Amino acid sequence: MKNKPCKNVVVMGAGPAGLSAAYQLSKNDIKVKVFEAQNQVGGISKTIVKNGFRFDLGGHRWFTKIDELDKLVKKLLGRQLIEVYRTSRIFFDGRYFDYPIKISNVLKGLGFWKSTKVVLSYLLVRIKYRLNPKPLKTFEDWTIANFGYVLYSYFFKTYTEKLWGIPCRQIGAQWAAQRIKGLSLSSAIRNALIPAKSKPKTLIDKFLYPKFGIGRICERLAEEIKKHNNQIALMTTVKQVNHKNGKIISVIVEEKTGGAIKTREIAADQFISSIPLTQLIRILTSAAPQAIIDASKKLTYRALITVHIIIDRPQITSDTWVYIHDSAAGLGRLHEPKNWSKYMVANQNQSSLVCELWCQENDEVWRKNDSQLIKLVMKDLTEVMNFITIEDVVDAFVVRTSKAYPVYKIGYQKPLKIIQEYLSRFENLQLVGRYGTYKYNNMDHSILGGLWAAKNIILGKRIYDLEQINADLEYHEEKQN
Ligand SMILES: Cc1cc2nc3c(=O)[nH]c(=O)nc-3n(C[C@H](O)[C@H](O)[C@H](O)COP(=O)(O)OP(=O)(O)OC[C@H]3O[C@@H](n4cnc5c(N)ncnc54)[C@H](O)[C@@H]3O)c2cc1C
């Protein structure tokens, strides 16, 4: 990027990443146009409103370790931010267990025989690794080494495979090390026998949440962008990205208004993309080399189907989330929005649930119609979990998200690197966001990426290295007690 004043910027996608870039540029009086395929801003972090009930696409809490971002969100939302205490449980074997798992609670809940099996299998695996140490390459290796096979099969295998849709031996050990660090059975037993000097790391037990739903963060960013007379074009999909001599020169967008489709070409000095990396590769014109297209086919995403249900009962659970590890249920996770904020329901006599199903785009679950999906979820809720009855249901609807999780299958880094190297040749293109960079970002990572990309444009130099965002292995939910 040269030290040349930038006159206008195109931002692709109006999720947290794209909007925070446009926000920062707007504040610095740079002209920016944001193009968003959906009919509202927020991406995966949006809040949908139906009959006065508000629904996130799976509960989203706001948390960050980066002060600048915390200050930004507090400035944007002010008194709309509320503090929520987290109490979550795991549903397994017809019973509930604490989340994050506590070994004492698990052993008590499982009963004598299953608990004995857990402890014996753990001792066995420790002896095995002591006699024959071997590197922990996969999620399965890491979890079995830390918990034993029995606890792994009860509390990690089913849930992880439901989420990712691939066997745990195809997922890298880093993922386990990052997500479940500090929860090993040995440290739990050790802590029970010898009181620890410092408490182990736990997952945060309270968080901030906008009282009208997580989508308010993006809605507030959008309001600020518009105050600076910058445009956010909804229902407008970037269909083509044109380049010449190592620079992006324009995008072709398709705008849907009523029944009509209008196509326009928009030129700009600088481009920020938060649309899925694999999609960007496919819409480059002239086309990316075949090797790059082949590499992009190796990166896959897990899809999310959320079934949103309005229920004629004042409250169904006391939980923030319920994680469904039980293999009898197809459901992965659910939450009751009212437990996050009472403003998420239209009236206090009723409540609602958001139920998450994970699948592949176009697999048999994805292809089910809405009423089949609602039936599937209702079967889990009524028969497997005994949560509600059919008579409780007032209304239900389905939302499909084709790209919800970039899949960290073993070996994904190689094709990703090939794509990153190819795209880095475009001197006026920056990649941000969860799908734009193919990183398992939380909102704060995406917002930071957007802000940094904008600052690079404002400064006229690539001072901020976007690749450093969400690059460490520390799980961003951890805190030291
Ligand atoms: C179930 C679930 C729960 C989560 N919970 C949390 C949580 O509790 N806390 C947290 O911090 N994070 C959470 N996350 C992560 C959070 O949703 C993401 O980090 C965040 O939304 C990513 O923002 P983004 O801008 O990078 O991408 P997105 O939110 O996906 O935004 C990208 C936007 O680009 C648009 N787009 C795509 N293609 C085109 C195109 N061709 N033209 C125009 N527009 C296009 C999309 O429609 C979308 O609006 C959760 C994610 C999931 C799936």
From TrEMBL:
InterPro entries named among the record's database cross-references: Amino_oxidase, FAD/NAD-bd_sf
Cellular component annotations (GO), alphabetically ordered: cytosol
Domain of life: Bacteria
GO MF assignments: flavin adenine dinucleotide binding; oxidoreductase activity; UDP-galactopyranose mutase activity
Domain Amine oxidase: 17-458
SUPFAM superfamilies: Nucleotide-binding domain (SSF51971)
Pfam families referenced in this protein's UniProt entry, alphabetically: Amino_oxidase (PF01593)
PANTHER family, per the entry: UDP-GALACTOPYRANOSE MUTASE (PTHR21197:SF0)
Protein known as: FAD-dependent oxidoreductase
